[in-house]
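User: quick one, sequence for these tokens?
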């Protein structure tokens, strides 16, 4: 008598929960992601062969444009709850007797680098668009009577002592202006910083062999 063969049904995997989980994760990352705003000034940095990269967070970025304007920027850190930009702005406001509203502080956290006196910061924050803000960049005071760049760096390091510094200068910027920024860093006991450059591959020719 022949054996009765049982029908074999292949296992079925319901992918519906997996799809739901994927969309939940996607929505979570979209809602929590913070997009980096556009830089206030474009600089043509010199080239180098260094493979060292600047950290993505907890960085003070100082940019010297080809017009010799010095721009200051800090990030909010790896955790959005740190609110480092907000703390530094409020400290500068207290130093210069300027009171910023919660809306202005929140707007400041979402913006990027700037180069203007703290007295014009409220107007910069209340500007209607990026083009208007860019036109307001007249330079950070850096003289002996009112060295606001020094104060921005000092307050930033006060709230996060391990801030790293990245110095980015345009290839056409005046070296004296870059040297002035380096001197201010040293006045804040910052003797180690990153020089931001463009990576350029080594080119081997017959003349080099």
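Assistant:
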């Amino acid at each position: 008598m022949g054996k009765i063969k049982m029908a074999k049904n292949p296992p079925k995997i319901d992918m519906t929960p997996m799809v739901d989980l994927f969309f939940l994760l996607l929505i979570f990352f979209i809602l929590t992601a913070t997009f980096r705003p556009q830089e206030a000034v474009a600089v043509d940095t010199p080239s180098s062969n260094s493979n060292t990269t600047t950290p993505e967070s907890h960085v003070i970025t100082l940019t010297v444009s080809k017009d010799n304007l010095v721009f200051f920027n800090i990030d909010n850190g790896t955790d959005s709850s740190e609110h480092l930009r907000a703390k530094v702005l409020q400290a500068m406001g207290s130093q210069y007797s300027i009171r910023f509203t919660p809306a202005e502080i929140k707007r400041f956290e979402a913006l990027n680098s700037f180069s203007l006196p703290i007295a014009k910061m409220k107007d910069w924050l209340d500007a209607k668009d990026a083009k208007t803000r860019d036109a307001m960049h007249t330079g950070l005071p850096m003289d002996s009577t009112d060295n606001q760049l020094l104060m921005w760096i000092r307050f930033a390091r006060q709230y996060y002592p391990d801030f790293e510094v990245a110095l980015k200068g345009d290839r056409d910027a005046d070296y004296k202006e870059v040297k002035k920024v380096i001197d201010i860093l040293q006045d804040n006991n910052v003797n180690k910083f990153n020089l931001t450059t463009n990576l350029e591959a080594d080119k081997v020719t017959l003349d080099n062999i």
